[in-house]
Amino acid sequence: MFPEVTLVPPTREDVHRLSGWLKDSDVSDVWFGVGKNGKPLHATYNPDDVLAGGPEDWNQVFNDDNKSIFSVYDGHGQHIGEGQLLIEWPLLEAQAHLLIGCKDMWHNHYGTSALIGLLDHAFGPLGLHRVWVAVPEYNEPGMTMVKHLGFVLEGRLRKTHPKNDEWYDSSILGLLAEEYPRRRARLTETTVG
Fold this sequence. Notes:
This protein is an alpha+beta fold. Helix content is 34%, strand content 31%.
């Protein structure tokens, strides 16, 4: 059975913890790497800038109707990661981003549980038609996870992810709202008992 996780609105403490995780090269290497300035890259916002800014900076990032950003907590109330949905409302689709920053939780299905939570939100309350992910070629565990959840390979983008001063391709995989209930039920069946 997959471990229990909860998706909640981020707190300042969560963003501070996330900033610390990103400074760990093991974490930043599986995420977006580091920029030319040597600082870790993060999707949609810079955690250090948000922490240094005021309430308006916080609201601009975390109260944007085109984004759903969540902190991921395990079943014991420990903050372990972050999930995001970047929404294109005219197309009723979102790109999903997921980072389990707490390395002790890696390879224990917390990412799978968190992605299921993001998909439940996307296809439930948000009413989206499609969710897609871009998985860099060096992230084999990420690729295994999304395929296990039923994402279908749709194509490849060239040189989209920087790592160690090189650019790597990424695979684009998508999942449709009509496919998700069947895939989710199958996952639940295979993990019970």
